[in-house]
């Protein structure tokens, strides 16, 4: 690249070991080295998004019309709902996260993606395992544990092998790195694969019984969120924010605190799903304490990301990836603080067992994880495909419908959940009152589900246009970046 | 191996940030520099806050953890004692027969007391409800099993005993509700003493009543 | 870094999985808790495969912090010993429907459960529970040995009869077996397991 040599500040020379400078051409080489697995993963993820959306909508409608499609066993609520969760978590989010990791690692390690074919095979094996598991689930073969429904005999081994293959590619690339300093995103991505394999294997062992099975269940389910979904998506946000606005991450030390406190405390959180329940009290107390301690990594990450973007929020107008990453980052802070609050006994006695939990999990899994992945796809796909998103209008529509729809969803179920919880806490009202108090909010949730689904359809159609329509030239500038980027702004120190 | 920035790398412009001043190639607009971390240590209050959080956490754990054993429900007893005192008092204060009926009886006998024809007998106009109060108290306390004929229709089901779940006051209230209010039923009130007496007399009974047994008792 | 990251998660694994595992292995079933029969285990499997757990809990929480006991879900909070025969656990996390820990005490009548599974709204007009007609068989005429479910006219099929399948019978056997109204087991094993 022929670029004018600008003045180099003395201060920045001091920081030079932290500077990862690279040419656009070099980045392109890295992107293309992982083209096959990255595109494969995103393609599969988008298909799962569509399937998961249909399953989720159907589950929601069944609350309003309990006799809807109840004639067939495979369409009963108790099978559709876990199918929705598994399709979204292991299908959409995890597969998209494979692609994100396989795209991030070469860039951050300054090397080609290693073992890309192994990663592609891993994604296919993972997908095969998930298909087997979901078909069995709809036929009634469930392991009976939330988040671990997929059959431990036929589906789970494939998932383990698939994730291990993608993880092998990630770690091989890390081993071949050309950088000395590891950027914070690398820590999260690299750690998340061994974490996931450990907790998934531990959660699926068949010999737990009684309340211990519940403890292991929630040890896994909470860590699947914390050490897998959260880790890779924080990595993505940590990459997108400074990259798009052209400014370094505010503080290396806060990144460090954020990472290690998350690793230490998040892993101990699981038992707060069983507050008041029949498991040994010290386990619950430990998890509540660890949940309260989560305030440290959450605030650290919050400050770090906020201070990185602060003053540049205006750039969101030009970049959908930045918009979504910022919303996702804020949602991470919000969902974590809400989670800490919900783990307190005085709040939990109201919200436990209610739709509040569902609102909370969608704040985490949608507003944080899914929006961050959408943001990632808006940024990654044009660079890998070397083609721009064709329509600014579809992007706006997508962000508006999914973000707005999910905000409505969370507010509706949050209110409904609290009303339900208060009703359940009042003895002598009968169960009818708690059902009646949720009905209008469940209806509102179904409406928001439709809005979100329309957003997904817009996104899927747009992805189709991007990938398969030949109309758009490769040289066209991104529709949202009519601007000139705001490059590194020197911080006054 | 590539720790040192290469000589050909684009410099990072500093100072005046206005991008209008930058004359950059399309491709560079597209591909901004790779992110890195500043070495700012972050606000001091955060570190202070973290230490405070750790101390609070340690105290919380120490207060609620209890013993390292399998005992459930011990950790939060001390902390919540005051609250539960109020809650318990509120529960005992007034006993509404209609409320007991709604929460315990309607799943079978239905809110209007008409039951489900062929499955669960009605309470409205039922001679078992309006007749001898002793029989009704016995049915409510110890349950009922086997064939029963109400309003000319035969039923064969199993009604659970409520003696372990309803207090004397609740039992009296719900019996009076179904005898005097439900669906236009009009029979005499029942005293709490009768419930206490029958509960004491039959406290060793393990099985629900059957109709022949009740009829035999009524005759005697 | 890898070692540190692995260390944290393994530390959590030891605290929340391995340590409780060894503590809980001392817990014994209370004498009043019956070992589930073959039919009840089949019913439990049907409970799992139809996802009852997504709306029903099977736990009575601490009476000090909730209204679980005072609203009649049980006469005491549930404890680890109540669950020794459960694998996997069915504690549940949602009370879209009522708790089922003591459903066999509250509703011992099998016919109630059968009709309620066939069409919940036949018994509970405001219910939002899905119906499970696929656990029953519609036949033009009852054959020999068929158990027929009496369904109120409003919900009955236009012609023919509703026959109870072994699956439905097993599920109901499981539900009515959920009785945990015995006193809290104060087994000495609890105390022994203290370090």
UniProtKB/TrEMBL annotation, chain A:
Top-rank lineage group of the source organism:
Bacteria
Transmembrane stretches, by residue range?
A: 37-56, 87-106, 118-141, 153-174, 186-207, 219-241, 253-275, 281-303, 324-345, 365-385, 397-422, 442-461
InterPro entries given in the database record: Cyt_c_oxase-like_su1_dom, Cyt_c_oxase-like_su1_sf, Cyt_C_Oxase_1
Q: Which Gene3D superfamilies match?
A: Cytochrome c oxidase-like, subunit I domain
Q: Name one GO molecular function term.
A: cytochrome-c oxidase activity
Gene Ontology annotations for the cellular component aspect, listed alphabetically: membrane
In the record, biological process GO terms are: electron transport coupled proton transport; oxidative phosphorylation; respiratory electron transport chain
**Per the database record, which ranges form the Cytochrome oxidase subunit I profile domain?**
218-479
Keywords annotated in UniProt: Electron transport, Membrane, Respiratory chain, Transmembrane, Transmembrane helix, Transport
Q: What is this protein called?
A: Cytochrome c oxidase cbb3-type subunit 1
Automatic annotation (TrEMBL), chain B:
**What keywords are assigned to this protein?**
Electron transport, Heme, Iron, Membrane, Metal-binding, Transmembrane, Transmembrane helix, Transport
Question: Which InterPro entries does the record associate with it?
Answer: Cyt_c-like_dom, Cyt_c-like_dom_sf, Cyt_C_IC, Cytochrome_c-type_DH
Please report a single Pfam family linked to this protein. Answer: Cytochrom_C
Disordered as annotated region, ranges: 1-23
GO MF entry, a single one: electron transfer activity
Where the record annotates domain Cytochrome c, the positions are: 92-182
SUPFAM superfamilies recorded? Cytochrome c
**TM annotation in the entry:** 45-62
Highest taxon, organism lineage: Bacteria
Q: Which PROSITE patterns match?
A: CYTC (PS51007)
Q: What is this protein called?
A: Cytochrome C oxidase, cbb3-type, subunit III
High-level lineage: Bacteria, Pseudomonadati, Pseudomonadota, Betaproteobacteria, Nitrosomonadales
